[in-house]
Design goal:
Layout: H1 2-21, H2 31-35, H3 54-68, H4 73-84, H5 92-96, H6 109-143
Length: about 140
């Protein structure tokens, strides 16, 4: 029985050490996570995440203060909808009307692929256009 008690005590001690070493802030809510789902209050085509205008910065500060108070993401979004109306929420209709432009993002893989595919296409068109034009001129010169 004594050996069982020692093992149980060791197990509890090890569990306590693991729990104390676990990062406590790993699951903390950030302003960026919340503002992804909020529309910018001004008339710009940006989502709140990317807006750097005064109105957007004020809303981000408010989100930060609400996070410090311990509110969850859904509670913060509900607070904004209650306070500012349904326009505060980023809806599918707003996305269709262009409220998703994000100028702080770099190109993704698809955008880079499309860019270089377009450049490659036009280089080929230009090359074959010049090639066929020169070939046609040479054939006329040899025929004459």
């Amino acid at each position: 029985m004594n050996m069982l008690g020692k093992r149980f005590g060791f197990f509890l001690s090890a569990l306590l050490v693991v729990m104390l070493m676990a990062p406590g802030g790993a699951f903390a809510l950030t302003v960026g996570e919340v503002v992804k789902d909020l529309a910018c209050p001004c008339v710009c085509p940006l989502v709140l995440e990317d807006c750097n205008m005064t109105c957007g910065l004020e809303w981000k500060d408010e989100v930060g203060n609400l996070i410090k108070k311990g509110m969850t993401k859904q509670e913060i979004i509900d607070h904004f909808v209650r306070t500012y109306g349904e326009d505060a929420r980023l809806t599918a209709l707003q996305k269709l009307q262009g409220k998703t432009y994000q100028f702080t993002r770099s190109f993704g893989v698809m955008e880079w692929t499309m860019l270089w595919a377009g450049v490659g296409f036009w280089v080929l068109v230009l090359f074959f256009g010049i090639y066929l034009g020169v070939r046609k001129l040479r054939s006329k010169a040899y025929a004459a």
